[in-house]
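User: My instructor asked us to take a sequence, write out its structure as tokens, and then describe one feature of it. I'm not sure where to start. Here is the sequence I was given:
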Amino acid sequence: MILSLPIYRLIKNLCSYFNRTSNTCEVVDDETIVINSGSLSGLILEFHYNICQVKIGRRLNLCLDIDRNTSVDLLMHILINHNIIKEGDIPPAP
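Assistant: Let's start with the prediction itself. The structure tokens for your sequence are:
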């Protein structure tokens, strides 16, 4: 069950972004994005109300506060700044 509309929009936008950048993803339980292949393979984003837990494999790396203003670009920038992903791992969206 989707907890809130802003989180649903972010999840939908993230999936669209990952698919455009050759990173295959799947949504599990409506609020978890798992990247299965591509340069971000192994990345897991779990959304709970107003937080996003970022995991690589099954290990928690980062917990972020999110709100309706959180965008895909902002989330990717935060992941780069915290060395979760490398800037070179993210191809520009077409």
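For the description part of your assignment, you could build on this observation: The mean pLDDT is 86. Try explaining in your own words what that tells you about the chain.
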